[in-house]
Structures
1.
Amino acid sequence: MMANLFVIGPAGSGKSTFTAAFREWMIKNEYEAITVNLDPGAESLPYLPDIDIRDIFDLHTIMDEYQLGPNGAQVVAADMIANVVEELKSEIEGYESDYVIFDTAGQLELFAFRAASKFIVDFLGEERSMLAFLFDPALAKSPSGFVSLLMLSSSVYFRFYRPYINILSKVDILSDEELQNIGEWSQDWNALYLSLLKENPGMHKELSIELFKALENVDVFRTLYPTSARMLYGYEDIYNALQMISAGGEDLEKR
Ligand SMILES: Nc1nc2c(ncn2[C@@H]2O[C@H](COP(=O)(O)OP(=O)(O)O)[C@@H](O)[C@H]2O)c(=O)[nH]1
Ligand SMILES: [Mg+2]
């Protein structure tokens, strides 16, 4: 059984650090996992990727070749990954690893909202691909930020239409109270609705309860898995959740 996990989230939400920490947790627990860096613009990474898109092409060459600045080059690079998926796929297959963790481009929209990415996910194994969407505490700790992340996470789901889990990163920087609030909002639309009104009392005019009920109907209120890379905390629950999704509850064989 093989699984592909695509790590997605806003810039700075902790994707690369999550990739490093989850890999480390897996190896420690004697599971096989490899990492793939899909961010051609990564300056430095907190792990040594087994497979690295930067070995195939790099941003500076694209900037020179197409006369683009760094932002334009990032967009071109995001699309260019689609041209090298066969190469990526055979490299990945060479590892025969159960788990493949993909770290995606710093800016979420470069991965989530470019046509190439859906193709890449499907080509690399539609049936075995899952998404992990990271919630950055800096945004998630306010009700309005939390709602934004929920919607962004479901946009990504609609884009790829693969099973996904929501992950709260960097919980070591949150107070107990903040953590508790976030936990409630993630499960209970009414708690979120009330907190949002408290934050922006004027909002009651526009904010319809129907919106929240509709969000609940598309299953956005779900477990938000707390993690901290700094404390190597939370990865077992994530692993178990992914196993439930990918193998119908089966445990991976130990090496
Ligand atoms: N305190 C703390 N900081 C973290 C954690 N995970 C990531 N960070 C920091 O958050 C920043 C962004 O992380 P990075 O993985 O580069 O985010 P990316 O842009 O989504 O890949 C870096 O400064 C990380 O050191 C964590 O669990 N705890
Ligand atoms: Mg990164």
2.
Amino acid sequence: MMHRKFKADQIFTGKGMAPAGYVLITSPEGVIIDLVPGQDAGENIEYTGHLLTPGFINAHCHLELSHLKNQVPPGTGLINFLLDVVGKRDFKPEAIQAAIQLAEKEMYDAGIVAVGDISNTTDTVETKKHSRITWTNFIEVLSFSDEKATERLNEYGDVLKKFRSLEENIQGIDHIFRSNLVPHAPYSISPLSFQMINEATAGQVISIHNQETPDEDELYKTGKGNFIRFFNFFGKTVSPFPVTGKSSLRSVLPFFTKGQTILLIHNTFMPEEDRVFAQEYAADNGLDIVYCFCPNANLYIENTLPPVHQFLAEKKHIVLGTDSLSSNYQLSIAEEINTLHKYFPDIPLETMLQWATLNGAMALKREDTLGSFSKGKKPGIISLDIDLKPKRLL
Ligand SMILES: [Zn+2]
């Protein structure tokens, strides 16, 4: 068996940069064998350029929305964005499937090895069956009322069954394919629906869109604000949710009590007091909280970014996502890093690379095989040039 030996100007291991001159040794398939000083590596070393990194983890994506690329105007705010997305229904199934296939390939080529993928439908099943990416399928529930909660949960339960039947049919797929229910957002889930999702997700990794606009807090604090326009679209004149006088996060996080790992997505308008609350609530109730940033989508929709420095100073578990092609120009974690670097140039590259690799793998509970150049893992071997353009080597 011929080993592959890779050398670069820098090798990011998943946790930091390897000492200068080190060589990464892998099996022909990309299983990590060793990372050794150059003088111990022998012959046939391939020089790959600027930087080597383990494959990227895209912790938040909606592959099924790929046909909405360039369909929704940027910069209009979340409410108008949501109304645009729910209003676009006139796409042929073939067009939806073609866009999903193209986007899957785009992610693979951009060095993405695992995705936390929101699925409201079974549209992505066919593409995922043949994919070389590791999928965590978040079957995302929208359920606005307690009255219809059972009905809605049953519908999404059927979507979940379709994904799970795939797991049973393909041998060993559990390794690369996991699926479970998740709530969409505080503004789309009723109290009873939250309770049912909590019961159904004990010990699992779940996600929820969090504080992507200040309107979310206003909705729960006062029952008023821009979300009423969103509910009007569904024939409701008032908020279907209880007015708690608290932020959206404080209103809904306490529904979760079953040891879940919860990916909070976006956090663009998450104040410090809520970050403190989330940490304390999680510690008291056996939850793990992960903070997922999707900077390009935040710029696209709300033209703003979350207070990244504060999360970093507070040593939060940070991961990165692309969100969907309805709110992004590409599905590339390297491009998310490029954007963060542009707006936060003082944050070291290796910090952001760790968010994109090992932190993501840990959040999705894939660190046994992905996220770092540790012996025995098969994390993907990605070369980045000086502009962080990715090239997949293995
Ligand atoms: Zn999203």
